[in-house]
Every structure is written in structure tokens, then in C-alpha cells.
Design brief:
mainly alpha
Amino acid sequence: MVNWISLVVPFAYLSILVGSLATFSSLYRKRKNAVSTSLAPWFPPHLQRNIYLSLLHLDPEPGQEKAPAVPESVLKAALLRRAAEDVYRTMQIRNAKQALSSLLARGSVGDDLWKRFQRAESEMEEELRDVVMEANAFSPNWGQTIFLSANEMAANGMLRKRIEELQSQTKSEKEWWEQRRATIQTDFMKELDQGRTTTPTPKTDGGVSSTKQQKLNVPTVDSKADRATSDEDTVVVEGGGPTAGGSIKGNKKKKSKK
């Protein structure tokens, strides 16, 4: 015969163990969900998605049975705007993922921030799938090309935003440059005035300027000619001899005849 008393103990142990594990898992899931819902969203509310859904599901006005029909072109334009915003958010997630993962590995950020990022990433994946399904509902195979158009729209929007920021700074930059140019001009004029006052014209002891003194010291052509004639008239007498004496006497006779 089977001893049921001996089998009750292991069955009771197994039931208690399974019940405790199930209770722990349920409590852990509830707590995890509560923590994830309490975390602040990574992105602000998706305005373009809300506009598209409001246009797609319009409520009928009071006194009317059916809601007014929205043109298909308006719905497509709203879906394109929604896809462009999704492209912009996807670019932000891709740029921030590597930096955030490195900071998490170093311990610079907490797990709450990483959970927020993972939650935003999963929400963006679901959003992209939803946009592709909506695009294929309007026209077949449009879901494959809608994000190409949305990428061009997002790039154009970012370029316009950058141009507007630069244009908004032109007034302040112009005022700064005008002030800078005025200060440079005043400093330059001060330097010129100081240079004029600190460099007087040099003068000699007699009160005559150096240029005038140079003009006075320049010899004339007549004085040079006189010096040349006087040098020619001088005779140098070298060693004694008859020829030398005759030449001297000849010169004296010539002078007396004259």
C-alpha cells in the first residue's frame, strides 16, 4: 500500500515553492511596470501623430450622424509630417545611444536614464512600423519610400531652422561690429596724435635745420676748379742737377718776360 502521509510533505513543499515563485514574479512585474510608467518620457508628446490620428478619427458634430470626410491628400500630408518627426527622433536616438552606453559602462549615469532610453527606442520601433502600415493602407508599396521623402523634409526643416537662427543673430552681430570698429578707429587716431607730438624736427646749435646745413656745406663747381689750377701751378723740386737748375732758370726767364 502507498503511504500517503509520506507523499504529502514533498507535494506540499513543491506547491509552496511554485506559489512563492509565482507571487514573486507577479510582484516583480508589477513593480517594474510601475517604475517604467513613472519614468519621464525621453521625448515630448508626439504632436504630429496626434494630429494625424485626430484627422483620421474625427467625431461627428452635434446634430449630424456622420463625421465630415477628410480629403485623402490632407491625410497623406499629415502622415508625411508624422514620418518626418519620426526620422528626426530616430536620428537623435542613434546619436545618443553610443555616448549613453559608454557613460553607463563608466557608471556616470544611473539605470533609470538607461531604462528611459530603452523605452523610447522600443516606442520608436513600434511607431515606425505603424507608419509603414498606414502608408501601405493608402497606396501599396508607399511604406518603402515614405521615409525617403520624410528624410528630405527633415533635412530641409533643420536647414531652415539653422538659417533662422543665424538671421536672428545678424542684428546683434552688426551692433557688436559697429562698436568694435569705432573703438579701433579711436585707438588708431590716438596713436597718430601721440606720434605727432613725440617726434619734433631736429635742429643744429645755431638754430638752422639739418637740411639747410647740408645745403650750405655743399661745395660749388668753381671752388673745385680753382683747387685744380692751384695744384697744377705747384712744382715739386726733386734732386739737384743741371737739368733741374736749367729748368728752374728757364721758368724764371719766362716769368720775367711776362
